[in-house]
């Protein structure tokens, strides 16, 4: 296991879980820099010669893993959700927006994998790993990007993480004008309106309404997902809701893997009827 | 003003979208359930390239696609949106490749980069269908360019040797990074508002060049398609759904749903 940058000793202690044999700390840089990471991981690889190089399938992971694997001429498989070690290595990953799973076999002695966060249970207990410092000579001339700052986005008047009931809207709403329909439902129910990523990408709702990996993680009592298919990035932000209700015509959409209740029917018929059930007035679209 | 010439190369993929109901044929989805389209992320990359072209005096935007002749229709869409000309790489070796991994794609695109010598390469973060998310950064490493992954804001003055980008990290945090050119940027959705092609653009696209290239013409050996990775299974995952589905007419469904919500404490 390798810890690079930041409070490496603190992280090393935290990662010293049962089953971990060795932890290498590399105290290079306060913030993530892919040039430093790429050089460091390649140096560690040369020193340790692992059969499998496991990297995270995160925004930063995808900022250095392909460079490392390409530089080391290792086959790369990204976003693994399962791994089996047999005669060859078999990796399970999804395709077509989680509609199918595939197994790919890697016929090589050494391989780089990025693994999807949350697919494996965290290691537990306390280990007796040997923690040692690993020194890398960073070639500063090939550090050609500089982090100049960070910013939290999605602030503002509404905090969707505070809401008890969220009415959340996705791509199935089709047109910007139709947002009025889910707004009316949220108003009628006294709920807060949130959304999946495409709605924010389209500029139909502000960033502070976005639920998911790059947005907010929410844990309301009730989450009503309307026209949301349930892409993995979205699910990462709402799977902790107590009760999940889905309204989506596609009964095989991944959102139904999480939903407690569902209506596999046209949201443009169901939502107006639901507004009326609670004494509200559906908008004319 | 008075900037020097700049070239932007945009990697454009044609991807397959699968219908809700589909059937699997061997290791692929039955062709009749697939609809081909411009990769969503690449639509934003095209827009970013065209915006640079419009902001500068002398900026050429070239697109590159690895794909069969069918992809010309998708490439025409990019041309109609303002891309100046296109390159499409395909031959019998690529046709016969069962699993086109990111290393192979990076090698092919690297040969195009060597030919074209762009200042900036824009690629989508990932493709809709495989969601591999690795080609852009692997390409940068291959050609020795700097790079930035998952870019959701780009500021660049043509002629400058640095681009200022925002990278979208998890949890609503953005990183500000300065990247030296030449560079590969992988573009995140939402970075801009991709335009619709105008009728004039669509007409003009008809006379723009789509240059077909083979691996051989790019100076690549057929062995570039060799991969240690092979697809061995493709299946519909067993549903993990234990959702209670309300059924009936929309009014009946809404009625049952309303009852549930009231039980859960929702009051109008």
Automatic annotation (TrEMBL), chain A:
Pfam families (alphabetical): ETF, ETF_alpha
Superkingdom assignment: Archaea
Entries under Gene3D superfamilies matching the protein: HUPs, TPP-binding domain
PROSITE patterns: ETF_ALPHA (PS00696)
Protein name: Electron transfer flavoprotein subunit alpha
Lineage of source species: Archaea, Methanobacteriati, Methanobacteriota, Stenosarchaea group, Halobacteria
Alphabetically ordered keywords of this record: Electron transport, FAD, Flavoprotein, Transport
Family stated for the protein in its record: Belongs to the ETF alpha-subunit/FixB family.
Domain Electron transfer flavoprotein alpha subunit C-terminal per the UniProt entry, residue ranges: 159-239
Example GO biological process: fatty acid beta-oxidation using acyl-CoA dehydrogenase
Domain Electron transfer flavoprotein alpha/beta-subunit N-terminal: 3-137
């Amino acid at each position: 296991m390798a810890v690079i940058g930041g409070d490496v000793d603190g992280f090393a202690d935290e990662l010293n879980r049962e089953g971990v044999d060795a932890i290498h700390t590399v105290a290079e840089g306060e913030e993530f820099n892919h040039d430093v990471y790429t050089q460091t991981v390649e140096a560690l690889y040369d020193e340790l010669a692992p059969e499998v190089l496991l990297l995270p399938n995160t925004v930063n992971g995808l900022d250095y893993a392909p460079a490392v694997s390409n530089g080391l001429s290792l086959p790369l498989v990204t976003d693994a959700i399962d791994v089996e070690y047999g005669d060859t290595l078999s990796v399970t990953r999804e395709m077509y927006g989680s509609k199918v799973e595939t197994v790919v076999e890697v016929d090589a002695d050494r391989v780089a994998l990025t693994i999807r966060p949350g697919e494996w249970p965290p290691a537990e207990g306390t280990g007796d790993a040997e923690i040692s410092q690993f020194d890398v000579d960073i070639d500063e001339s090939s550090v050609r990007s500089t982090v100049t700052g960070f910013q939290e986005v999605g602030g503002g008047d509404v905090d969707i993480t505070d809401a008890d009931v969220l009415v959340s809207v996705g791509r199935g709403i089709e047109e910007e004008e139709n947002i009025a329909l889910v707004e009316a439902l949220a108003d009628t129910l006294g709920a807060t309106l949130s959304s999946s990523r495409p709605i924010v990408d389209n500029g139909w709702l502000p960033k502070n309404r976005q639920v998911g990996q790059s947005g907010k993680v929410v844990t309301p009592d009730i989450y009503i997902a309307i026209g949301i298919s349930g892409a993995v990035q979205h699910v990462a932000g709402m799977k902790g809701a107590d009760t999940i209700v889905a309204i989506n015509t596609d009964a095989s959409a991944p959102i139904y893997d999480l939903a407690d209740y569902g209506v596999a029917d046209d949201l443009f018929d169901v939502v107006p009827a639901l507004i009326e059930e609670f004494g509200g007035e559906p908008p004319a679209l | 003003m008075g900037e020097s010439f700049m070239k932007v190369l945009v990697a454009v993929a044609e991807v397959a979208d699968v219908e809700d109901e589909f059937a699997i044929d061997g290791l692929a989805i039955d062709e009749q359930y697939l609809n081909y389209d411009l990769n969503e992320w690449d639509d934003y990359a095209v827009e970013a390239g065209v915006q640079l072209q419009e902001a500068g005096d002398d900026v050429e935007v070239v697109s590159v696609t690895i794909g069969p002749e069918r992809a010309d229709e998708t490439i025409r869409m990019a041309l109609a949106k303002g891309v100046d000309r296109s390159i499409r790489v395909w031959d019998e070796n690529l046709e016969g490749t069962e699993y086109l991994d990111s290393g192979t794609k990076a090698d092919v695109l690297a040969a195009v980069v060597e030919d074209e010598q762009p200042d900036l390469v824009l690629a989508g973060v990932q493709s809709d269908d495989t969601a591999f998310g690795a080609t852009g950064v692997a390409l940068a490493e291959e050609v020795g360019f700097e790079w930035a992954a998952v870019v959701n804001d780009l500021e660049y003055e043509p002629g400058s040797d640095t681009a200022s980008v925002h990278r979208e990290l998890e949890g609503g945090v953005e990183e500000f990074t300065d990247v030296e050119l030449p560079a590969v940027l992988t573009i995140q959705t939402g970075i801009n508002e991709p335009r619709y092609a105008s009728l004039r653009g669509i007409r003009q696209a008809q006379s723009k060049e789509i240059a077909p290239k083979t691996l051989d013409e790019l100076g690549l050996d057929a062995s570039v398609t060799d991969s240690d990775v092979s697809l061995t299974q493709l299946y519909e995952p067993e549903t993990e759904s234990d959702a209670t589905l309300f059924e009936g007419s929309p009014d009946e469904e809404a009625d049952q749903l309303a009852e549930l919500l009231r039980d859960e404490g929702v009051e109008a």
